[in-house]
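Exercise 7. Given the components listed, write out the predicted structure of the assembled complex. Treat all entries as one system.
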Amino acid sequence: MQPADIVGRRNQALAGLDALELPIAPRPGRLRRAWLGAWPQLAAVGLVLVAWQVVVASGWRPPWVLPGPAAVLPRIVQELGDDLPAAVATTLGRAAIGFALAVAIGSLLGLAIVRWRLLRTAVASLITGLQTMPSIAWFPFAILLFGLSEGAILFVIVLGAAPSVANGLIHGVDHIPRIQLRAGRVLGARGLGFYRFIVLPAALPSFLAGMKQAWAFAWRSLMAGELLVIIAERPSLGVMLQFQREMSDATGLLATMIVVLAIGIAVDQLVFGSIERRIRANRGLVEVD
Amino acid sequence: MIAPHPLERRETAGNGAAGPAIRVGHVHRAYGPRGNHVLALSDVTLTVERGSFVCLVGASGCGKSTLLSLLAGLDQPQKGTIDVQGRVGLLFQDAALFPWLTTSQNVELALRLAGVARTERARRSEELLARVHLGGFGDRRPHELSGGMRQRAALARALAQGADVLLMDEPFGAVDAMTRDLLHDELESLWADSAMTIMFVTHDVREAIRLADRVVVMSSRPGTIVEEVEVPLRRPRTLADPSVAALADRVASRLRQEVARHAAG
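Answer.
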């Protein structure tokens, strides 16, 4: 041990340096930040509505084929008191199950490919190839395999979404800084622990980006599936679209489409967007202005 | 009787029966394809006594980092033997803290991987962070710390491993001069209070003399040991001590001689 006064002076100097080094960053309040994030999006929606109304008002198509926002928006509210909640529930339920399956299968596949070089050589390019295959092209085959059932829809969702999950994971692992892997090894992480404590957390941002893309694929596949695979007595967004087309109900059709779009965006922004923002903030990854 | 200065540490510290902490015997390590390989280390033999502080200096390409990788078990030699007694910790030039964990979680992960019980970890991590003067910073993320603070956090993480041998690869290369002076003091007293053996790589000869009991000078391409210099100066030392400067000059001129050899070739 050294004399207390020397140690004390040194500690003070260190503490002073530490204090000077730390950034002083005034952050806007929570409400203000929410507003800063929201107003451009609200403005964009407003612009789209105006443009839509202008096209309708120009008389390019008759209003029973192309109704304006003034007719469609109240229709959404009206549908909310009708079949819409049940339809949304069915569709979201399928989306959740299909997406969960896709994440599970995609993660296992991705991990296996990361782990075994031979497997990567064999199937990595095949997985990317699978992504380029339009999901709707799978449906005839899926219907043969599973009949007109939930199974057919889930099958196509998984085929559409799992490759993105796997690719996100593989990409994430490929881009882990070598020094983090070395640090993990030196700390004594081996075997499964090495994956659990080092590899997976390090790969998380890219893994999440893969899941986000997988969600988009899953939602698209699901819509295609619900248009093709119609199961009796089970209202869904796809069934509503199909039914409204048969009835030439343009207002209802547009109302349902807006709901489909809104759900897709909401999940992307509220679920994945917020997780992503948190991860970026935690790791000190700067926002690009 | 004059008591020895606290930093004049136990001459015979840890003099168990087990012998030196590090023994490197005739090690060769080459990279690249056969016939066109680069010899990173050629016939390197080195013994480091338990509890001593050894600095490794050399110009770039002298295989300093390669040697540390071998000692840390991250790489294997093609020829020769490596024998390190006890647990090995390694500190990088970049602190290499895990950005997905807070500072204290980084330390706790090391404790966990070292087999420390869950109930112990929080307390031990707090102690270790206090030991490197990061007491109030456990909840910060690595990116919220300065470079010097990150290095101290990495040091706490290495201590959490319970390392008997601490390898340091130019750990203070990227921190400012004032912080570095303080970190030297810190490291020295940490070492004096423990039974750790430290092997510290640097390209800064004066830093080496400031810290080490013994300085090992390496030449480049292939990396070999050309000289070992004992540092008989009393602690505490500072970078500004004339005796440190004088010895550093001698070692630096030896190093320059080695580097000049390559200009001719």
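Discussion: The mean pLDDT of chain A is 89. Chain A is about 80% helix and 0% strand.
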